[in-house]
Design a protein that fits this description.
It is built from 14 helices and no strands. By secondary structure, it is mainly α. α3 runs antiparallel to α8, α4 crosses α11 and α8 runs antiparallel to α9.
């Protein structure tokens, strides 16, 4: 295979019909490391919305068991990518996500914002730090993939294009970013978890991670802004990495997120149905679950469990 063969394959596909195939190629063949980092950053951004960060602090999952929460989130989302929405494992993963969400009173606006981060943040990361820029086919497929995921999660008023996802993210952050003590604890715990993966390099990784956060996000958490020289060094290192990756041969076998070294909690394997938490519902029916026949609910319509 030649370096751009996967991109040629993507361009032969239809982004609206073949979105799963395109998205799977993008995240498992072309950019597995980058997409993992971008999705970590996407979730991190959501803590700066006080209603989200405060709820996560109240559950204590990210502060008391951050590695398990990280692993379960990665594995549940990865299951859908690997097996698809109609597969048994994919449906089980979505059902688990919905069972957790419906245990809390989460607004549709917050859910839609989180979904928007999964589209907008990776697109922006890859356009800046990827070994090549994303094609229009890939951006459209990414929007279609997460639009489908959002409908399976019962989210209404989902953006239809990647441009609309980006607009949703920007407007929601401008209106809602703010400081919350609980959200800051969640942000600190997540930062310590990710830095801790690198042992003695943890202080360097912590500083580099903060350098990747924009000023609005730093201000929401009341973090000190990194020195310009640190930001420049981090951005330069990522650009140099991209140039090096561009010279590598294409990945022949897919690399799924479950294979990442950061996923540490299941050395002997796992069952999708046992991932995540099992909280007592606070308000029954707050979030729909995937219907047992495998079909997605209509947009805005709750599926029966």
């Amino acid at each position: 295979m030649r370096r751009y063969d996967w991109l040629r394959e993507i361009r032969r596909l239809d982004p609206e019909r073949d979105f799963l195939r395109i998205y799977r190629i993008t995240v498992t063949h072309e950019f597995p490391w980058d997409v993992t980092r971008a999705l970590e950053l996407a979730l991190y951004r959501t803590y700066a919305v006080p209603s989200i960060g405060r709820l996560l602090a109240e559950t204590a999952e990210l502060t008391d068991r951050p590695q398990k929460r990280y692993d379960d989130t990665v594995l549940l989302l990865d299951t859908v990518v690997e097996h698809g929405f109609g597969s048994e494992d994919g449906r089980t993963a979505i059902r688990r996500i919905n069972r957790m969400h419906r245990s809390y009173d989460i607004s549709n606006d917050d859910m839609r914002y989180v979904l928007s981060t999964f589209v907008a943040v990776p697109i922006r990361w890859l356009d800046r730090y990827g070994w090549r820029r994303l094609s229009s086919h890939e951006k459209r497929a990414m929007a279609a993939y997460y639009g489908t995921l959002g409908r399976h999660l019962g989210i209404s008023d989902i953006p239809r294009t990647y441009q609309e996802f980006e607009e949703c993210l920007d407007s929601y952050e401008a209106a809602h970013f703010g400081f919350d003590p609980g959200a800051r604890r969640v942000a600190d715990a997540s930062l310590e978890l990710m830095a801790g993966w690198y042992g003695p390099l943890a202080p360097v990784v912590r500083g580099a991670s903060l350098a990747l956060l924009d000023d609005a996000l730093l201000d929401a958490f009341r973090y000190d802004r990194p020195r310009p020289a640190v930001r420049t060094a981090v951005h330069t290192a990522l650009k140099l990495r991209a140039k090096a990756v561009r010279l590598l041969p294409p990945r022949r076998s897919p690399h799924y997120a479950r294979q990442n070294p950061e996923v540490k909690g299941y050395p002997n394997g796992y069952r999708v149905a046992e991932l995540g938490t099992f909280p007592v519902p606070r308000r029954l029916g707050a979030c729909p679950v995937h219907p047992v026949d495998g079909s997605a609910p209509a947009e805005g319509e709750a599926a029966a469990f």
